[in-house]
Amino acid sequence: MPARVDLSSITPPVSLGALDGRYRPAVAPLADHLSEAALNRARVHVEVEWLIHLTDSGALPGAPMLSDAEKDYLRSAVASFGADEIAELAQIERETLHDVKAVEYFLRRRLDAAPSVLGEASALGSRGVAEMVHIFCTSEDINNLAYALMVQGAVTEVWLPRASAVVDDLAALAREHAARAMLARTHGQPATPTTLGKELAVLAARLRRQLRRVADAEYLGKINGATGTYGAHAISVPGTDWEEVSRSFVTHLGLTWNPLTTQIESHDWQAELYADVARFNRVLHNLATDVWSYISLGYFTQRLSAQGSTGSSTMPHKVNPIRFENAEANLEISCALLDTLASTLVTSRLQRDLTDSSTQRNIGTAFGHSLVAIDNVRRGLAGLDVDPAALAADLDANWEVLGEAVQSAMRAAAVAGAEGMANPYERLKELTRGRRVDGAGMREFIAGLGLPADVEQRLLALEPGTYTGLAERLVRHLDG
Fold first, then answer.
1. In this predicted structure, what is the pLDDT of residue 480?
2. Ranges for the Adenylosuccinate lyase PurB C-terminal domain (predicted)?
3. What Cα–Cα distance (Å) separates residue 319 from each residue in 170, 266, 344?
4. Gap between the Cα atoms of 95 and 286, Å rounded
5. What is the pLDDT of residues 33-54, one digit of tens each?
6. For the stretch 211-224, what's the b/e string if a residue is b when 16 or more beta carbons lie within 10 angstroms of its beta carbon?
7. Which of 15, 236, 296, 312 is catalytic?
């Protein structure tokens, strides 16, 4: 075989995974929250705020009070964190061989440079302030808070708005077709008619319930030392209420304080959140498979321009439901990762092991595949048109589904005192089980039952397309 170009050596680097390759446009906003660079920026943020908090709270006797200009200077290390800072931090880590220690040295460099920016009198240039960087902190004090902030931002600023948008699209489609009669299929067999809108509304309501759970998620954090005891704090500065300093710091960051931990924050909140996101994914997967089936039945047609694709490489007549199929695959991958995160993060050997460090680096991938699926479902829904003729033809071919209505009306008439209503189920079973019944045959059967006149009139006027109960009205619960 002739020599080939080594793709691993190409510059810029070739993407190994789909999220940083073909799916990049759908997931790019997550990089600002859940990438390795975002993790390091969040670590810098936590270290800076911890330093400021210690000076503001008076927790350390002798520590200077920082001016607003000095606080702004420290926070600018977070605000300006970009390509140069990413490269600088990577270079430091190559020397420290420890990611959080690299952040500490990165911040100390900023303190060393402060007098040249703020003046020689700045407290930031003092040895005392330099020693306050990362004081009383184990790596996990920084990491757990960084991850909580990152996940919180990713969920509230990226995932929830996208997920809410696809549910809003679905709800709008449900309202539009609230009265559109459709043959239902239980166990895949013709069943009591419903409306297309009502079936879509069921899925929209299920998805909204999961969105409420995700929106109400708690993001926990801790900062309490190497094994969660405040050991170094209490022996070094026994006069400070370190629990209150910790609580006020965590809540100042916009997180919920966890007072009882080992070296790590227990990650239970992450497991709860990922289970809820996975459940949303699974309901969305249900939507994708149902819509795929409705397309197969001809209830929906697809606009090729909206799908933005060639239907088939060899069969020119086809418009494949690729958006929903793509969504299925990405939802399954996302759920697999979220399930793994939820099941593994809640366990840590004794006071700490390192498994969570590697595991949490896949949070962005899990959310990324969910976003790809959401994007595909939105695009798929936008390219659908309902085929009223197909829906009507299916209903008209299945008059036997009125058997439920007839036998139920006979039972109700019997309860009201009508004679001759015995064995209604069995009589309808004999008429309809395993056979097609047309409109004339059903009406002939109804007319021969001896029903009370008002009941007979209602049933004779009934058609599969009008036997939808309260389905149209039920869609209104989406706005309740």
1. 79
2. 348-468
3. 21, 48, 41
4. 50
5. 999 999 999 999 999 999 999 9
6. bebbeebebbbbbb
7. 312
Tokens of 289: 């498979």
pLDDT of residue 420: 87
Give the rounded percent of residues in the chain with a pLDDT score beyond 70: 97
Those residues with Cβ within 8 angstroms of residue 125's Cβ, 6 or more apart along the chain or in another chain: 111, 112, 114, 115
One of 8, 9, 187, 358 is an active-site residue; which one?
187
* Beta carbons of 232 and 136 less than 8 angstroms apart: yes
CATH architecture type of domain 28-132: Orthogonal Bundle (1.10)
Check residue 42 and give its pLDDT: 98
Is 267 one of the catalytic residues? no
Distance CA 313, CA 434 (A): 40
CATH architecture of 398-479: Orthogonal Bundle (1.10)
What does the block give as tokens for 49? 């705020």
| pLDDT value of position 313 | 55
Q: Where are the domains of the chain?
A: 28-132, 139-391, 398-479
Query: Is 134 a residue of the active site?
Result: no
| Cα angle 13-16-17, degrees, rounded to a multiple of 5 | 130
Rounded to 5 degrees, φ, ψ at 66 are: -90, 145
Say whether 398-479 and 139-391 share the same fold.
Answer: no
The answer as to CATH 3.40.50.1000 being correct for domain 139-391 is no
Give me 259's structure tokens: 């007072």
pLDDT score for 432 = 78
Weakly modelled stretches of the chain, pLDDT under 70: 304-318
Q: Residue 291 corresponds to which tokens in the numbers above? A: 């819509």
